Fold these 3 entries.
Entry 1:
Amino acid sequence: MEQKLIVSGSPHIREDVSIPKIMYSVVFALLPALLGSVYFFGLRALFITAVAAASALGTEALYQKVMKRPLTVRDGSALITGMLLAYNLPVSSPLWLPLVGSFFAIFVAKQLFGGLGYNFINPALAGRAFLTASWPSIMTGGWTPPLRGTISGIQSLTITRLGLDTITSATPLSLTREAMRVLTDPGSAQGQVELARNALQQLNQGGTLKNLFFGGVGGCLGETSAVLLLLGAAFLLIRGYIDWRIPLSYLAAVALLTGALYPLGVTRVTPLFHLLAGGLILGAFFMATDMVTSPVTPRGRWVFGIGCGIITVLIRVWGGYPEGVSYSILLMNVFTPLIDRMTRPKKFGEARR
């Protein structure tokens, strides 16, 4: 029997992956961290997330209706933006804060640039940066203590004398920054110096690292439990929805740099502390890997992750904020087109320039 060769146009390899399928898989991967935030901070964490998500969905639907564009609120991208923005807020935030932040993230950082696929920076991080610049006292101070779990072994009296109210009102990174300020200030009293050294030593102990891994420390809603974030990240990695190069290079850069600075005394907390504290896990797996704002080339993703790691360490150690994850990703988002251009693979048969 004669067989016919059928020739068709590209693409020749097809998958059943769609934008809604990917987006709702990310939503599913974020749910463990959401449940953890409710466990550690109470139902207010759920209310803040709901307000942020509703604002994101409503803003996108209203803008597209006014501009007479196809409605895309069902694809899940706006929902992810709202959830990620909420994960970057303290639980003590007034409910209007996630409302305003999601509006800015969707309207300014996403829709004004053309919608999904055209935004050049991560919308959720843009919303967080806007809120931090507009209301810094809410975004960087007045942390609410978790209902379950504290930073093990550090007494409130120690933190009070260092200049913070209580241990439960400080994040681990803000405590680190305050202790380092005392140590590097020539005018610090000897008693304050001893208290700062004691606080930093206890931050490196196993009890503190355990709380950072499982949760129960002061911080933003979605960054307190590393294990719950890693659980969702593992799901996305297995499904192939995020590339392992960016989070691996990001975390490795932070670990290597802080590992080099720790013996020199530039930073007094271990690389493991830097990996678990703050929003590094959340940023490395769920925001730096954004398909729209991260490089598409394999080599470019290595460059992107390493750049994020370097900027994060620079801000944490020498910058004005105790945390640098958000700004590091936003800065590298800006360089993504250049990174893609510089790391573009050579076509088969193309002559070297």
Entry 2:
Amino acid sequence: MRRIILNEQRQIAPFNEPARDLRIQNKPLWLWQRDLLVAYTTEEREYSDWEIARRFEKEAVECLVHRDNIFFNEELIETFITEARNGRRPVRLAFRADDPAVATHVKPLTHSFFQQDDLLLADMWYLPQGLSQSLEAKPLVINTEARERGYYHVPPYMATEFGDLVYQLPRRVFVLIENWVHVFIADILLGVFTRGANVEDRIKEDWRYRLKILSRAMLQQKRVLSSDELVRVGNNVHIDPTAVIHGYTTIGDNVTIGAGVVIDNCIIGSNVTISQGCQLLLSVVGDGCFLPFRAALFMTTLMENTSVAQNTCLQLCVIGRDSFIGAGNTFTDFNILGGPLKTMNAKGELEPTNMLILGGCVGHHCRLSSGSIIYAARTIESDVVILANDERQFITKNVTYEQSDHLKYPQYTYPRLYPREDDT
């Protein structure tokens, strides 16, 4: 089967980079897509839009067509291709508008869905006789099989208007990456959180798998949640005996984990150092990251080669590559005045995120000095330097490149690596 990739060149703020190049599950999105589809396709071709693709793709060959800004998991793509091939007709991926996972997490901030009656049509097609069939494609509705997971006992002031803090975690994952919030949703909520829920459900439903985990734990003389069935460790990894690591967690190669570290349901990349007393829960730490002592991550993404200094707390955040977060910074995640949090959409307008709690986002190649408090859902654009001072102690608004502190010092050279489209 031939794979046709339609490029989406629109940049995702505040990274100033197309979605395909952002890391999801510690892989560039384009690589994640390729690795999942390699079992179904034999060749791939890329085009900037549909018209150019139709002009060059005249052959009547089996094709899978999709945009390069979508995140999906193996369960979704296997279901879609299997059902499409069984039907032997051109189809387009679709979801019901009231599907809990799509309505709660995917539809907000997304403007590329095409709505047809009560269906949301996604940018993925199966065309058994080539691109000439694209206009004939009928919706193929996929049920994401969402399950409710989250926190059922929370302080009343956090749950009065919106209920408990719960998420809809699908077995079949699909996210359109059009906003930095979608990176958080794909990487954390529908990534590591959903992966953990899948393992938890399998343990409950499959007694053989449950027995396998228990026997491995007994053989290794470890806690059940720390056996190698649930904690996958790469090569040349040093883990201090006092560290506590629970599954489902994967750890790459050449990793050092210091004394007193606690890791629960995370993805840790390769060449990572996590020093004494750090705590990581439901987070993704990219290749080459460095966490000195007592850094804390909760439901947070660190892209590759980023450092988070001591006593910094990141909650429900997304941090870009090659950035530095100084000591003692705190990213808050809750609007104590109540109401849903908002963020800027692609049009530069404030739009509700449909989330009661949400941290901040730091772009690529940023430097944040110590001691700041960043309010919920605020963003810091790529290539920004923030120096500690009274004016920047509380960051209550989005910070753009033009507001970077390094611009006040002409003698200080700091290259701009990720300009906005209109600045290039």
Entry 3:
Amino acid sequence: MERGGHKTKVQNVFDIFEERGFIQQVTDRELVRELLQNPVTCYIGFDPTARSLHAGSLLPIMALVHMQRAGHRPIVVVGGGTALIGDPSGKTEIRPIMTCEEIDENVEALKKQLSRFIDFSNGKAVILNNADWLGGLNYIDFLRDIGRNFSVNRMLAAESYKARLETGLNFIEFNYMLLQAYDFWHLFKHYGCLIQMGGNDQWGNILAGADLTRRLEGKIVQGLTLPLLTTSSGIKMGKTHKGAVWLDSELTSPYDYYQYWINQDDPDVERFLALFTLLPMDEVRRLGRLKGADIREAKRALAYEATRMCHGRDAADEARALAIEQFGSRGNINLSAPMPSINMEATSGYRISQEELEQGIPAYILFEEAGLCKTRGEARRLISQGGGYLNGERIQAFDQIISLKDLRDDSLLIRAGKKRYMKIRLF
């Protein structure tokens, strides 16, 4: 890169990955770093098992973002072919078999979604559906040309298969490693792809693809895995008490997406700023040093940058403004501000009617029905430990009766802990 007649050195993306915490395993650290000194083609695969990815898929997406920013060419493989089988990696039971029509619809939705993160114009990146080359394979030819290169003993030693042997691994799932390895070879052969990346549960599949390419072509390709993230409280990345945090704005609104990030636990904030934003690491470290009430600045930066990348600047600006209106700059709740709400007549499961509210509802039942707690037992424990609030006041007993007299402007504001709110309106 030249600027003002002088060349500026571009940082090797491998060093960026190491500094930001992206790397779990790598086939050959020195060779991969050397390979990334010059533009290369890499790929990551995504399963089209739903019409949206969720926040748990953000780490591989961000890895491709960094690759592209460093001048490399990402290939996104949407697994329309392998989804017909289902990846056993990280699963204790077989995935439901999807129809071709369901997969095709999801593939199109994911293509549109991933385009918000990755620039596919002018060949800067490629998005492919592996059904295009797997769907036409002849089974006998595949077994003869590809299957003979795989050792059953070695396959059974892979973590993705060992974990399933106790609960049962069927034959169709057993073929998944062969097909993903075939993907890597196909992308090397036809697109010059030299690196596959993926979650650490894909390590065995990545090695299988590298080995197959070496056997068929006599060429060395590389692999790199990303850590499987959990929050400091042990929750899988992208999950909340309400379920998955989707990247689709129709499934998780930009405001709720913003709230997911701003409500991360304090010990996770610096790590997530490094992984899920493009802020310079000097700024990440500065924000990570903030303590006490000041850490809200870091959380607001995380929430804004993550929302901006996923939903755009306008949606991030709106979500931030709404959060400030609702909670204030210091996090104090504004009872009159807009916030997540449910219609009392449309609550899922147990139906809360005006008549029932006239009779009174135990607090723990209301918390469970409103979705602030997964179970009534969890709600009882939360409230008994002082973590339940009604209209800003701590609830004194888990079975405290909540009734019409507690309404404020025809609504109730309930809160679980410091961060989870729900306004229940009466219509």
